[in-house]
Amino acid sequence: MSDMMQAIAENIYQGDDTQVAALVRKALAQDTTPEQVLAQGLIAGMDQVGRDFKAGDLFVPEVLVAARAMSAGMLILRPLLAERGAPSVGKYVIGTVRGDLHDIGKNLVRMMLEGAGFEIVDLGTDVPPAAFVDAVRTHRPSLVGMSALLTTTMTQMKATIDALEEAGLRDTVKVMIGGAPVTADYAQRIGADAYAPDAATAVDVARELAA
Amino acid sequence: MTQQIPIETLHPTIRMLSDEQISAIHHASMDILEHTGIVMKNEQARRLLLENGAWESGDRIKIPERVVMNAIRSAPGRIALYDRLGNLAMPLQPGKVFFGTGSDCIYTLDIDTGERRPVTMEDIRQMAHLADGLQQIDFCMSMGNPTDSPPDHLYVDEFISMITGSTKPNVYTANNRADIEDIYRIACAVAGGELALRERPFMMLYAESISPLLYPDESVDKLLFCAEKGIPVTYPPSPNTGGGGPITLAGALALGNAETLIGLVLTQLVRPGTPFLYGMNTAALDMKTAIVAYGAPEWPTGMAAWCDLARHYGLPTWGAAGATDSKTVDAQAGIEASLTIMTAFLCRCNLVHDVGYMEYGSTSSMELMVIADEVIRDVRRIVDGVEVSERTLALDAIHRANPGSGFLADNHTLENWRWAQFRPVLFDRNRYDRWVKLGSKDMTRRANERAKAIMAEHTVAPLPLAAQETIAEVLGRRKEID
Q1: What is the pTM of this model?
Q2: What was the ipTM of the complex prediction?
Q3: What is the third-level CATH fold of B73-383?
Q4: Of A21, B80, B209, B219, which one has the greatest count of Cβ atoms within 10 A?
């Protein structure tokens, strides 16, 4: 059975979505639990991708192809996991802050988080503080992630945190921020819980905060 | 749609000289040979010239245009150099650019200590080994005069060290006919005989006259030897502006052109069809220090110009790039190496030597070789141009993109990123935190580590047994004579 999990992990790493879907079905048919397939197959594969990416051995497109294979597996597993009431790795609300239309960096973080098994609610770009508050109220995530590319829009991160505070929701979530002008120091100053300099680190930070 | 004719990709080139300028320099060179004349110290060459249309006037030999043009017609427009295993490695012909190291430095920057110190035979083997392991380096030269070899034998020892360290083609130097005879003997043993060596030469002699207009006996003798055997030779003079040549580049080019064409004439008189590589070195003699500046802009300017002259004659060309006057591997070294490498590509110089030269050619550096390797890869991408085709116009991808959301995860990116973008090996593009985590290393430090890694991992096929025996025999005989 561990051979099967290893095969799933390897196909995740190679980014073969068709193989991953086929192997996940096969594993489930052989009485492996969805939780086992998720942890020992899909996430194990993505973990290796994350490690090698951070070590500089993989390129972004290779990570994205792996994430796509992961999604193919999750498409099969998600309803089964929900049925069994299995806890997800974490629910994550993500968006680019008000006044900022930059999508690419935020999308990269989203895809990497999905690859790590997070359930993502993507609010898109130009997201006002009230929309973050609404999303937190509706989806009850454990994490909120904000992105900004501009020094001028960065201030909206503080406005969003303040809005969460006012709505009495700040303590229900961990807030992490990132983007070109953002620094760890700034995160601390505005009362965010964490900062990540890049998408791969964002996954590590999110995991730590969700644990 | 029926299959349509693909759009040709433009690969950028530069021209330094107009047709009118080429013609004017050519005629100036012919004037130099016919009215000024040369001084020929080699008796055999003097007789050859006089028997074939040249005449003597005082201490000068004067050569008419007809003799030069006949030689240009009989010289091959392509020189194919092989590696020492017999594989085609460098077809020197229009459009192709090959890079390699330089000859005969006095010092090397020690790869372990950074100290500038005299060169040993082991250094030469190691330089060749590194050149062998660097993908963008096509040939090697000695990069040093070894101090642990007796002066009478050092060129033979250089050659042995080079072919031990690398299978790539080499450009070698020699002191005299005795040297080149021994080198030839060893080369024949490597190639598997005289005919095999002539058919698949893996080495080229680099000899030179002395600018202005002086042809020393032994230098010409080596040139004649190559012609007798029909093996490749280059004979580039160094009319450095203000030193061996006039202070003005046009005059230096006219003189250098005249001088190198005499080398060509001699080889073609001995054996029509002898592979001869046209070229010269037009560095600047610096007016403050009197050093010959390898980083001077006159060098790439001159190189592009003599490549235009060579194209006019239909001859393959010799040049230099990837060298610097700096004493350390610093910003100056990187800039001077890059400017010359870029120019060598743009003017399509066929054989480009001196990669890794520091300190106006006095010192060699493995770090600079590794950095130049990366620059060559980088510039190769630039001259690759812009492919315009269905797959590169990517209209489907543009059509399906969400405005503002980018192409990072689009299938077109995932399918084409590997070839569509240049990926650096040595240039650092890490995010700041990761760069710090990796030790905050500058480019020289990274080049140093890469050089050591290549030397540790890269293996070179040993010399064939016959060659090893011939080397032992040659060295044994040389020892007896001592």
Answers
A1: 0.91
A2: 0.82
A3: TIM Barrel (3.20.20)
A4: B209
